[in-house]
Amino acid sequence: SQETVSGESEEESSGVNLMEFSDEILLHILSYVPCTDLVLNVRRTCRKLATLCLDKSLTHTVLLQKDYKVNKDKVKQLMRDIGKEIYQLNMAGCYWLPSSSVDHITQCKNLVKLNLSGCRITSLHLSKTLSTLQHLRSLAIDVNPGFDASQLSSECKATLSRVLELKQTLYTPSYGVVPCCTSLEKLLLYFEILDHSREGFMLSGQLMVGESNVPHYQNLRVFYARLAPGYVNQEVVRLYLAVLSDRTPENLHAFLISAPGSFAETGATKNLLDSMARNVRLDALQLPKAWINGSGLLQHLKFNNPFYFSFSRCTLSGGQLIQRVMNGGKDLKSLTSLNLSGCIHCLAPESLFRKAEDDIDSNILESLVVSCCNLRHLNLSAAHHHSSKNIGNHLCQLLARLKHLLSLALPVCSITDVAANMEKPPVQSNVMPQTLGKKVRIGVQTYSNQKPHSSVFWALMGSLPFLENLEIIGSSFSSAMPRNEPAIRNSLPPCIRAQSVGDAEVAAIGQVTYLQSLTLAQLPNILTGSGLVSIGLQCQHLRTLSLANLGMMGNVVYMSALMDMLKHCKCLRDLRLEQPYFSAGAQFFQALSHCSSLQRLCIVSRSGTLQSDAVMSFMANCLEVVMCHMFMGESLTVCKNLQQSLVRSFQADRPALNVVIFPLLHEDLTEVIRDVPMRHLDEITLFKSRVAEEPPNLWW
């Protein structure tokens, strides 16, 4: 009776009754609602929704990885109500849930895929959970200090023996559960082991006693390892690779190792690569730069239908890239993702006598574009890719042919319109160094240095209708907050070619209607930031925004435009700002409060200031915010008091709340960083290029 009356009143007021839609349409609408809301709230509204909310299409896969409102009681109730209907469960990054929450997963008897990365879980809890999951084939877990494989029951090990896909994040030297997984086809390893303990003791990369069991790689098809900085991570990954060097799996088709800095090749790794060259055909490849530079490895490796290549930071020349990897420019339509970040010579025929700032060879780039016409992800950042003044050969003009691009990363100097700049005299403000400078008066927002719509970058942005992720990063930019190191106090000046890139180029990005993620770093000619307003108005799907070192470094010249922009960003979820002398005051936070969907905020500012009252008011108004990281120039006392106030006021209502307020240049910064949940640290707090960082669909 009440349902009928409610439905009639709704129909009379709006003219449309939602319940009159077909089941197919309603199921599609409900698929956008978090599963916890469907099961615990929506299905209790009426009989029809009670049935639809339990449809297999909605309960087959349950995603809790970014449901920041879920708590232990909701997990318990959810598993009790639909546990038997769940086949795939993703709880990645649910760091706020107690380890006891994992115990409720035992009710999901039919579970095939389980992701517990970033969850608190002990060896005993893991053993209890996995012992009941006989159908499990895909597993993701963390291995933390104190993990003891001897505590795993025989039933748990039986489950692990049937697992085909394993993703393991290591925070301590260990094999984890790898030796128990005797049927592995896909192994993903993330090494996050620190070189020093909290007490300052040096850690060893040797595995603990009792963990000398040999991993089983005979069925392996995909091997992926990503290393955080540190020698211990290198020591441990070599132990994992030692088994591979003895016998290379015949079905191996993807071999990827992402290692920062120098990771020297050894006799064992050389034997492994030689064996791969003789016995396997690869579809995906990524190797440390020291393993490729100066070697003839690429000449001997064989490829089948490659979909991912990463030669990040390698000294590979364009000639080697075309001849050895792309078979002299032959058809490579299968390649969908290519990472050439930091490959300073990759668009030049040779590297022996070439300077990094010399013009690129457009024929090399054209061969790449023609051969890899189906590229969806391309990273050319961290290099000086300077186009010549010849008409029609500009990098932007050639990239415009890649109509399927979804994500693109470019250095700032690569988008300069060389021909256009040669026709006009240089502007004095363009050639000033990015240091302390004369303040610029901010008035009415105008496109003071607007280029015509015929500029090559404007045309490129207009030719990529499906682009979702764009990064424009200065070739010499480095974040003030690197991983595991003290904050950087000084930054290198921008490339000379980048000096003319400013507001007009930023305005051109507004053409990318479906843009979801945008990173802009070290654009020296930002005078007012007026282009940001265009993006806010036109890119209504924008979810992630990262701005760093825009304009002159002595003054935040784009503050007024940024505040205008934020008023239009209704879908923005993640905001990262890195700028010296940034003033996070009442006006800024009032503008930011218009971003009703905002969940995560990170501000990095040398000599920056904040108003504690404004921060508190912002957090009270923006109920979705669960992460607030500010690394500023304030004193330790001010930072600690604000952090304690935020936690005390909002933690109870926001179980996932993570607050870090800390002086950027404090000597204990690295100790504070190590306690940040990996989800936030990796996705927003630390600056990095994320385009083609990993193969697409590496993990579900």
Question: Could you please describe the fold and organization of this structure?
Answer:
Among the domains are: 19-184, Leucine-rich repeat, LRR (right-handed beta-alpha superhelix) (Alpha-Beta Horseshoe); 215-298, no CATH class; 406-415 and 455-683, Alpha-Beta Horseshoe (Leucine-rich repeat, LRR (right-handed beta-alpha superhelix)), CATH 3.80.10.10. Helix content is 29%, strand content 16%. α9 (231-246) packs across α10 (267-279), α21 (586-592) runs parallel beside α22 (612-621) and α22 (612-621) runs parallel beside α23 (636-650). The chain is globular. The strands form two sheets. The chain has a 20-stranded parallel beta sheet, with helices on both faces. A two-stranded parallel sheet has the order 18-20. The protein has 700 residues and is α/β, with parallel strands linked by helices. α23 links the parallel β21 and β22 (658-663).
Q: What attributes does this structure have?
A:
single chain; 700 residues; alpha/beta; Leucine-rich repeat, LRR (right-handed beta-alpha superhelix); 20-stranded parallel β-sheet; two-stranded parallel sheet; 22 strands; 16% strand; disordered N terminus; Leu-rich_rpt; FBXL18_LRR; LRR_dom_sf; FXL18 protein
